Amino acid sequence: MPKIIEIVKATIIDLIVAFLFVIVTLALVKIAFGQSIDTAIMLMNTVAIDTKKDVQVDTVLENSSLKNYPEYGTKYATIEIPKINVKQDVYFGSSLEVLKKGVGHDSGSYFPGEGGSIIYMGHNSKNVFRRFSELQKGDEIIVETTYGTFKYRIYDMQLVNETEKDKLPIQRDKEILMVYTCYPFNNIGYATQRYVVYAELVEE
User: Fold this and answer.
1) How does pLDDT run across 121-161, given as a tens digit for each residue?
2) In this structure, what CATH number is given to the domain that contains residue 59?
3) Residue 184 is assigned to a structural domain of this protein
4) Dihedral (CA of 45, 108, 173, 61) sign
């Protein structure tokens, strides 16, 4: 009986040592390769609901009031969300190449100042939209473009499935900024749900 107790104690000690070794190893890996790991996770997460919306862009631009538009894949603005300490560049387009650089602007949606639906998307990595769950109604989103600054106020947040495209409606009746990311926020791999923040224009 004493031998069995000793064996059990030794096994428990070995397990504790192994567990501590794994924790220390993971911590060292995180310190050494943290940025690389975040980048890898970001690339594994596909964010855009539909990256083939470019066919709609001509229709939107024909009805718009702006004179000059950015080329696809180029930066034209920054988005700032003070509540969660986010300040990211915004690029026109929603391809994976665009999303590697920053926040994408769905080319099938309007631009700030045009009075219609604007759709932005970004990865759920820690430097982009991972803290979306902390946002509340009334929080501000500021978009500073090459032609002006626009302030929006959040009025709703929704968790939607990637197939529910009616939750991101394109309309021209009111200027609404919709910003979304993959959900869960710590997801690795392809996610089928999106966390969408809705904000209305309050100042330009």
Assistant:
1) 998 887 788 899 999 999 999 999 988 999 999 999 999 98
2) 2.40.260.10
3) yes
4) positive
First-residue to last-residue Cα distance in the chain:
79
Helix H segments across 45-128?
57-62, 96-101
Burial of 143 by CB count in 10 Å (0-12 exposed, 13-18 middle, 19+ buried)?
buried
Q: Is residue 127 part of a domain?
A: yes
Q: Which domain holds residue 53?
A: 45-203
Please pick, among 60, 141, 177, 182, the residue that the annotation labels catalytic. Answer: 182
Active-site choice (53, 105, 123, 130): 123
Matching residue, tokens 């090459």: 146
Reply yes or no on whether 182 is catalytic: yes
* pTM of the complete model beyond 0.85: no
SS3 of 63, please? coil
14 is a catalytic site residue: no
Counting as low any pLDDT under 50, the low residues of the chain are 36-37, 39-46, 48-63
